[in-house]
Amino acid sequence: MWCYIIGAYLTLHYFIDTHYFVRLFVHCICARYFLAKKKFMESSSIYGICMPTDVDMMLNHMNNSRYLREFDFGRMEYGFRTGLMDTFIKKGGSFLVSGITIRYRLSLKIFSMYKVVTTPVWWDDKFIYFDQRIVTLSDDIVRAVAFAKLATKISMVEYIKEMYPEERRPDNPPADLMTWLESQEISRNNMKKES
Fold first, then answer.
1. Which superkingdom, per the lineage (predicted)?
2. CB within 8 A of 119, min separation 6: which ones?
3. Which of 38, 43, 82, 134 is the most interior residue, by most CB within 10 Å?
4. Contacts of 77 (CB under 8 A, 6+ apart)
């Protein structure tokens, strides 16, 4: 009996990244049913620890791709705690990453405890933009920072007016976000020329 269970688990683990889906499920359930709700412009945080499954070939710090995964968990948790995900699902919207830029500041050592802080910083008619940071708990140092651009398929401007009438979009996006958006526009134009 145990052989079949272990065999089934190993088969699933080989073909599907079970750790990712189990953790995503846990974060979403906790955010939706057990954690305090957040306002739209409030930051939300999830916590983690750099496990041996997260490290790169040097076996002492987190693999670069794992940072992106942690940011993914952070956005999902934010979406459920603010009610954004529920509304998007009802209205036929989406929460798909359209672009992301990340800056790795300092390595995250194995067994370090950290938090992922997710904050919305800007929105327009098609996209919502998040500032995300991975911060170690022991010294409160930002290890990585990212901007994520998410396609919504619904008008974010209209959504904010309807759901959060007290919220006002900042007059301008942060300067570093603006620079990144300009670089994306240059890249888009270059790709059109090559096509």
1. Eukaryota
2. 41, 42, 43, 130, 131, 132
3. 134
4. 27, 28, 30, 31, 35, 44, 46, 118
The domain ranges of the chain are 2-185
pTM of the shown model = 0.90
What confidence tens digit (pLDDT) does each residue in 112-131 have?
999 999 999 999 989 999 99
Q: For residue 24, what are its two tokens?
A: 């995503």
Report residue 20: phi and psi, to 5°: -60, -50
Asked if residue 44 lies in contact with residue 81, where contact means CB atoms within 8 angstroms, the answer is: yes
CA angle 145, 69, 100 (to 5 degrees): 50
Strand locations in the chain (E): 44-49, 96-104, 113-123, 127-136, 142-151
CB contact at 8 A, 78 and 12: no
pLDDT at 121: 96
Q: Strands of 27-83 (E only): list them.
A: 44-49
CATH number given to 2-185: 3.10.129.10
